[in-house]
Design goal:
This protein is an alpha/beta fold. The protein has helices at residues 6-9, 11-23, 37-41, 79-85, 110-118, 137-143, 157-164, 181-192, 195-215, 243-250, 295-303, 305-308, 311-314, 326-333, 340-355, and strands at 54-57, 62-65, 72-74, 92-94, 125-127, 147-149, 169-170, 223-231, 234-238, 254-255, 272-276, 287-290, 318-320. Helix 7 (157-164) links the parallel strand 6 and strand 7 (169-170).
Length: 359
């Protein structure tokens, strides 16, 4: 489900962001990032900030928005964050029910609850499911949205077509689950007529990441492998398009290339691939970051003899999410402008400690 390089895809966004920010008199350091001009084109065809109608292209089709939306529904793990960061309360969004999310009793994630409180807003209609399964078409229809916002999602062509009968649908620019946090905010700004506000949010977040990267200089240019032990005997390896890898690259790290050649499927659509423990010797990075959504699976992975004997583990060049709370683990799984502040310093400091042990 999760999520080439951010340094190719984000530059065009930030160029547009800096221009829009200048129009409203903002001046901030956006940090080091990049984008393809093709992805920028996918954010829409409005000639000026706030002008409508606007057409936003996606991998599944186009959404033409005739006027500024006032009832926006979202689908996917984190798209509601982009709206809330721009001061827009969704009319409907997924419910995150269960212990694995760290949400409250209603199914609202903590950073979303905080944003709703700051906006003085009531809880939106909560849609069944966490945004990763089949979209509840009937529930969307009952919510009567004038826009469905899902750039970071896995909706299918059939779902896109069905939802488009209800309202214009903004899907992912290229592939499922690969829209970066910058893309989510920039596309939201285009769809809502809030380009300047989106530019400022992106620039401020980039600045915060850059400032933290300076605090932890050992991260600079160190290679990293992100491993996810999600089932016994198997671990997943994040590919370049995983949003977590893109975030770590913004901190100065580099996704280690050689292990990517071990991908047994070579699936261009996938954002990670699975390897058996016997293939763990392919991990040749300076630093290993082990990400798990429950502590038992993390402990079991690190205790496996073939894993424990890896130089990157034995030499203390491994960091993990072991000390993370449930909500922080979930926040790292779907990085947004609202979740980055929750995990930024914790991740950077943990990885920096591992990177300092690189000979």
């Amino acid at each position: 489900m999760y999520i080439g390089s951010p340094t190719r895809r984000i530059t065009a966004f930030l160029v547009a962001a800096s221009m829009a920010t200048a129009l409203v008199g903002c001046s901030t350091d956006s940090g080091d990032s990049s984008a393809d001009t093709e992805t920028l084109a996918a954010t829409g065809s409005a000639a000026a900030a706030g002008s409508f109608p606007v057409t936003i292209d996606s991998a599944l089709g186009s959404a033409t928005i005739d006027s500024a939306p006032t009832h926006v529904a979202t689908w996917g793990w984190s798209n509601q964050d982009a709206l809330l960061a721009l001061g827009v309360v969704p009319v409907a969004m997924p419910a995150f029910v269960g212990e694995s999310y760290g949400a409250d009793a209603e199914g609202v994630l903590p950073w979303d609850r905080t944003a709703l409180g700051e906006l003085g807003a009531a809880t939106p209609t909560l849609l069944a499911g966490d945004g990763t399964g089949q979209a509840p078409i009937e529930q969307f229809a009952l919510a009567e949205p004038d826009l469905i916002f899902a750039p970071y999602s896995g909706i299918s062509q059939a779902e896109f077509d069905a939802l488009s009968e209800i309202a214009p649908v903004v899907a992912y620019p290229e592939r499922q689950w690969t829209a970066s946090w910058q893309e989510q905010v920039t596309i939201a700004g285009e769809a809502l007529g809030k380009q300047a506000e989106a530019a400022a949010v992106v620039a401020d977040t980039e600045k915060n990441i850059a400032e933290v990267a300076v605090k932890y200089p050992a991260l600079k240019d160190k290679s990293i492998t992100v491993a996810l032990p999600n089932e016994p005997g198997v671990f997943s390896v994040s590919k370049d398009d995983d949003v977590r890898v893109e975030f770590l690259e913004q901190l100065g790290l580099v996704n280690e290339e050689s292990i990517q050649q071990s991908d047994p499927t070579d699936d261009a659509e996938a954002v990670y691939f699975d390897l058996s423990y016997e293939k763990a010797s392919a991990i040749a990075s300076d630093v290993l970051f082990v990400v798990a959504y429950d502590k038992p699976s993390l402990a079991a992975f690190l205790a496996e003899p073939v894993i424990a004997e890896l130089p990157v583990v034995a030499d203390g060049r491994t960091a993990s999410t072991e000390s993370f709370s449930v909500e922080k683990n979930f926040a790292f799984g779907g990085l947004t402008v609202l979740t980055i502040p929750v995990v930024l310093d914790d991740i950077a400091s943990a990885l920096n400690a591992a990177a300092e042990n690189v000979a």
